[in-house]
Design brief:
Length: 430
């Protein structure tokens, strides 16, 4: 399909903006110029000064299929991704069955090829059935081009297990992606151990449960030469450890979620399970350290940890409801509204954190708006305002703490490999 995007605005490397036309052909960006005329195309779209950016990349989402289709499916999850401007997502392995051998990966890839609207790169688990006991066959799984190895949702509890996992993954050029949580000091917590846990009389999760594993793991990464990536960093101590490890030349990278950047424990005013996630919302000081970590490069990019659950599951109260919130459809508008517009970060920084930075960290050939690159694109109306309405999500999951928040800056068109996979219904950009 040949698509001509007219009068788009693109960000240049220096952060300035320019108006341009972009020609998409055979899944690639064929040309970018001030004006492209007299070209026969299947469709011309007048972008009317909307921002054209590379398709977003999210290396941390949960699609729930197979086994959790009541929460989300590959189809609904990638519909949500496309609506949020994402063209590449990486699916975590806490499904049933767990993708821990070749047969299960083949089955998963068949489902992805059949139902996904955007690019889905699956993780394989570090240990069989996520049990933390026996390592998976990383050699054969690596040959199947799994994205990386993780037991996300479960911290690797022993140094021996992580050491052997990193040695194996490193030998095959794969990253270990870690949910960092020492179960021996979680104490059954459901929120951060702090003011809110005291006020609401709920068991708290100490910050130390996260940071102590990161401190252990960066030394193991140094010893093995493995690329070690830290999921959803949430504490100031974790930021400090990662910063020190980077200064020491250790191959460690990290991500932060929109909710940990925009919320803290003081955002929880009542027992609302839409504020229950793991890691939990930490203190204001932690929140400030996370933003500073993003700004100084300690934290490499933003990932949503999109974690849909059913309404019934989330209605069980703080002690019993599962951890997690959805995030694919709200990430950009929230971050643009509450970080870029107040001047806390630049638009260029935000776009980089959602595109080129995760691509560079994991050596992905995506995330660029340039001639010859894959035509993964999102068109964003930076002036469009809306009220977030969970009932209108494409995702099956409605579990968000951002319901009824007013936002500006909305993806209105998403192109994946040269094909339109999401288009705003009223086509206000045309």
């Amino acid at each position: 399909m040949r698509i001509l995007l007219k009068n788009a605005i693109r960000l240049l490397d220096d952060g300035s903006l320019e108006i341009c036309d972009v020609l998409v052909e055979e899944g690639k960006i064929n040309a970018i110029n001030t004006t492209i005329e007299n070209i026969k195309v299947d469709r011309t779209i007048n972008c009317n000064g909307k921002l054209l950016a590379p398709g977003f990349i999210d290396v941390h989402i949960h699609l729930r299929e197979p086994g959790g289709e009541h929460k989300e499916t590959i189809k609904t999850g990638t519909e949500a991704a496309a609506r949020g401007g994402y063209t590449t997502v990486c699916a975590m392995p806490n499904t049933n069955p767990v993708p821990d051998n070749e047969e299960k990966i083949i089955s998963l890839l068949e489902k992805i090829n059949k139902d996904a609207l955007v690019r889905v790169l699956p993780y394989a688990s570090i240990t069989k059935d996520l049990q933390g006991k026996e390592l998976t066959d990383m050699k054969n799984l690596s040959k199947m081009n799994v994205f990386a190895f993780t037991d996300d949702g479960v911290g690797i509890q022993t140094a021996d297990q992580m050491y052997r996992a990193m040695k194996e993954a490193s030998s095959y050029g794969k990253a270990i992606v870690a949910h960092c949580e020492d179960n021996s000091i979680v104490y059954g917590g459901v929120v951060h151990e702090g003011e809110v846990s005291k006020r609401m009389n709920l068991p708290g999760i100490p910050s130390l449960s996260e940071s102590v594993q990161i401190a252990r793991d960066v030394l193991i990464a140094e010893a093995t030469g493995c690329h070690y990536h830290v999921c959803h960093v949430s504490t100031k101590e974790s930021v400090r450890v990662i910063r020190d490890a980077k200064r020491a030349g250790i191959h460690v990278t990290a991500e932060v979620t929109p909710h940990h950047i925009l919320l803290n424990e003081d955002s929880i005013h009542e027992e609302d399970t839409n504020f229950k996630m793991n890691p939990p919302l930490r203190s204001k000081e932690d929140q400030e350290a996370l933003l500073q970590g993003l700004l100084d490069g300690t934290i490499d990019f933003i990932a949503t940890d999109h974690a849909p659950h059913s309404k019934v599951e989330k209605e069980q109260g703080m002690l019993r409801a599962p951890f997690g919130i959805v995030g694919l459809e709200t990430a950009f508008p929230l971050l643009y509204t509450y970080l870029v517009k107040p001047g806390k970060v630049s638009l260029k920084q935000l776009i980089d954190w959602l595109t080129i930075n995760p691509a560079d960290v994991f050596r992905l050939p995506f995330g660029k708006l340039a001639e010859g690159e894959v035509a993964d694109l999102t068109l964003i109306d930076l002036d469009k305002e809306l009220i977030i309405d969970k009932n209108k999500f494409s995702s099956k999951g409605k579990n968000t703490p951002f319901h009824n928040w007013k936002v500006t800056g909305v993806p209105v068109l998403t192109i994946f490999e040269g094909e339109i996979v999401y288009e705003e219904k009223n086509k206000a950009y045309v």
